[in-house]
Amino acid sequence: MYVHQQMLLSRRSSLLIRRTFFRLFLHRSAVTMSTSLPVVSPSQTRVGWIGTGVMGKSMAAHILSAGYSLTVFNRTASKAQHLISLGAKLADSPISVARCSDVVFLIVGYPSDVRQVVLDPVTGVVPGLFPGSVIVDMTTSDPRLSQEIDEATKSVDCFSVDAPVSGGDRGAKEGILSIFAGGDESVVRRISPLFDCLGKVNYMGQSGAGQHAKLGNQIAIATTMLGLVEGMLYAHKTGLDVSLWMDAISKGAAGSKSLELYGKRILEGDMAAGFFIHHFVKDLGICLKECKAMGLKLPGLALTQEFYTTLVATGDDDLGTQAIILALERLNNTSIRRKTT
């Protein structure tokens, strides 16, 4: 009996050792492969782009301007026409983009869109990839989906990077986005010339870390935006000139990017979307889901999500995130916006 137990333990130990060596082999193979691939440059790298909406069209245009060949796909083909006029080629499906690209970027609406675009067994990106290709998902999405995509790309000897961005339409147009990257660090470094066309890349950790960093960013934006419009309403109610008040606080501790980008637009009643409310509600919903999974309670996040959800209910979901002022104005039966003459 004792000898039999010892034999079982020996077999289990042997199996564990073999599994450990196999995992190390896979890791080393992936690292070797990622560092031995061609250098990214306009003369050697074919780029694909999926999603040419408010953000994507400007971002893709920067890739073209840098001299890279670009193949694009968008569900509504007319939204890609500007890029076609600049020299991009139009594909008829995500898999078609993958078949003629070394690096495929996507920035679409929802995690369900990401799943369909990347993982669909018939039309998705993964089935069309060549060994060594890279998927870069710049959509704000579910960290677990990023990890699932990472496993899918590894299974076909490819790589994935989750790289959501912050900076809005202005950041996209000017090429000054903040990029949160998760995945193999050597892969992120290798494709950094492409990221440099779009803004500044910040390596956050392994697969899913980029998404977690962006979700934290969205929480900070949400609560900052709520604080900004509450301060504006308070200043208005006390009889202050809100424009003068904004200028005064911008030079102190209350100064913020939200104030810089949206303060004047709010006061002038400009609610045009740099980032749609319905996408922000999606992002905050993912934040709350992650918080629930971690047992984390963030009341400021939950309250701000409620205000944005009321704007969806009133049909204002195609406005920009600064339109949270409308919910607060309705709550207080007042308006701070300047009267046009």
From TrEMBL:
Signal sequence extent: none
Residues in 3-hydroxyisobutyrate dehydrogenase-like NAD-binding domain copies: 208-326
Domain 6-phosphogluconate dehydrogenase NADP-binding: 46-204
Superkingdom of the organism of origin: Eukaryota
Keyword flag NAD: yes
A single GO molecular function term of this UniProt record: NAD binding
Entry protein name: 2-hydroxy-3-oxopropionate reductase
Keywords from the named record: NAD, Oxidoreductase
Pfam families (UniProt xref): NAD_binding_11, NAD_binding_2
InterPro entries: 6-PGluconate_DH-like_C_sf (IPR008927), 6PGD_dom2 (IPR013328), 6PGDH_NADP-bd (IPR006115), HIBADH-like_NADP-bd (IPR029154), HIBADH-related (IPR015815), NAD(P)-bd_dom_sf (IPR036291)
Active site (UniProt): K214
